[in-house]
Amino acid sequence: MTTRFHNYPEPRKGPDAPYKHEDVSVPVLRGPSLAIGASLIHSWEFLQNILWRNAGLLGYRKLTALDQYLPRFDPAVVPNSSSNDSNENVLSSESLPAPSQRRGDSSFWTSADYHQRYLAGELTPTVVVETLLPLIQRDGKQRGKYSIGFVESNVEIIRAAAAASTKRYRAGTPLGPLDGVPVAVKDEVHLKGYKRTLGSKLDFKHGIEATSWCVEKWEEAGAIIIGKTTMHEIGIDTTNNNPNTGTPRNPHNSNYYCGGSSGGSGYALAAGLIPIALGADGGGSIRIPSSFCGVYGLKPTHGRVSAAPTPSLAPSVGVYGPMAASIDDLALAYRLMAAPPPASLDALASGFPSPLTTLFAPSAGKTIGIVRPWLDRAEPAVRAIFDKTLASLQSQYTTIDIDIPYLPEGQHAHALTILGELASGVHPSDVRKLLPHTKLLIAVSGNKSTTTDYIAAQRLRSLLMSHLAHLFTTYPDLVILTPTTPLPGWKIAGGEADLAYGVSDARTSTRNMEYVWLANFTGCPAISVPAGYVAETKMPVGVMAMGEWGSEEMLLGFARAVEAGSVEVRAPLEEEGWVDVIKEAEGKLNGSSASKL
């Protein structure tokens, strides 16, 4: 592996450990009881100790096998491009494969639909922006119909970007397939001219007035950032329930959450507002919205680059990744944003090869690995769609049973790592300013864990990475397939009261992340693909494929195979929360002076 990768784990089969899962036993708190309980727990250490003991997150410390592994604090594995990175293999961003237009009324609009209309003079980026702004703006008491998914839109910056793009199209010099396409980014990223609150009432900008590298690459390609999207406060849970900013309801069924923590980005995509958005993965935040909202999500091997050497609140576990309404748009967005930055910005990420280089040629061997006891944790509606998807792939892939040791214990180790690192990014004096649910998690899980707990978690990370390396070297081009989440959506059980006060439901949160945590903890790339819908609730269900470090292109190919074989697509226009932006923009253009737009 020394010729293909830097920092590749030692391929080493882990211990034989039968799968055994026990659900966490922490009480659900909601409404006024959550606010009162969080304040008491934050103030009284003996209550913190009781909850910490009952959470059951430290079972992994009893694993004697951990003594045989050194702790691994950073899961980054860097593909070595020295033998493949040649001039003839590197594409320019302008020559990237352009996405296809939507197939008909049963699909979302793609970036190509905007691009082709701009080229034909049927629309301009300016008229698209002027169509979107009234829908998403949050100015004083003026709230657009879809503004619940956004925290801020800088009108002056947006209009200037649209005007520049319109001018390029009129001159016949567009920058490429993304020029003039509206996109949105999660509040977690740095964006010049915008606040950075991480969904809180605090300032996490840290004095940085710059744009994150990955977003800068989109802007250089001509994309128009129409605003920052809402997120779960500090990215600490998976509903996107946020009384600070308001909680977007799922466009497929308003009784359900969009998922989180990148729920605002998922909402903007599922509502048809944009074809591409940016999320951030701190434990599944990219992929859970893509499952609950019926869109695509990619967690890359790397992508954690920001505007400063310390990229986010929790740099060792936070990764930016694209989300999109089509697989073509997902591929385009990833290939542009994942360009390696200069070493002065991020020394580690600068060593990654450019995604515009052909690194992984198609292979004849295609293998799907499944862990059957793990799959059995999925709810019946989810499992039925997963099984149908797996059956549709049998003509192209060989399916094998695999074992991965200590999956429940690994999820606990991952949770402790995430919570500990998130807590370290909030000054103790600021904790009281956070929402009750966030305050509770930081007071208990974030603060009660010890250095010994943290080191043991990193030893388990090392064990899991070595075992995965063993699987990937034994079965080249292996994809490990699971549902994206075992749940067919997360219902807003308490209705408006839950949205007003928030909810603390550790058991459901843990269930929700039961499959997505592994890719995050080990640094492996993963892709979430829409696979079907639950007929009774209209809620989408996704499947998630995880591959070897650096296998993003293989995963994009896998997603195309899923899309071709099993996806049940329903017309977006039938959804209660859908807006047809292109149709409305065409109507606006026809009713206005084209010379002004």
Task: Please characterize this protein's 3D structure.
With about 600 residues, this protein is of the alpha+beta class. It contains 19 helices and 17 strands. The strands form 4 sheets. An 11-stranded mixed β-sheet has the order 6-8-7-9-11-10-16-17-14-12-13, with helices on both faces. Strands 1-3 form a two-stranded antiparallel ribbon. A two-stranded antiparallel ribbon has the order 2-15. Helix 6 links the parallel strand 7 and strand 8. The longest helix is centred in the C-terminal third of the chain and has 24 residues. The protein is globular, with a radius of gyration of 23 Å. It starts with a strand and ends in a 7-residue tail after the last helix. About 5% of the residues have low confidence. InterPro entries: Amidase (IPR000120), Amidase_CS (IPR020556), Amidase_dom (IPR023631), AS_sf (IPR036928). Belongs to the amidase family.
Give descriptors for this structure.
Amidase signature (AS) enzymes; alpha+beta; 597 residues
Write down the CATH topology: Amidase signature (AS) enzymes
Strand order of the largest sheet: 6-8-7-9-11-10-16-17-14-12-13
- The value of Rg in angstroms is 23 Å
Percent strand equals 5-15%
CATH superfamily: Amidase signature (AS) domain
Query: Would you count the extended β strands for me?
Result: 17
Query: Domains counted in the coordinates: how many?
Result: 1
- Overall, the morphology is globular
Compute the separation of the termini in Å.
Answer: 55 Å
> pLDDT average, as an integer?
86
Named CATH architecture? Alpha-Beta Complex
Q: Helix proportion of residues, in percent?
A: 25-40%
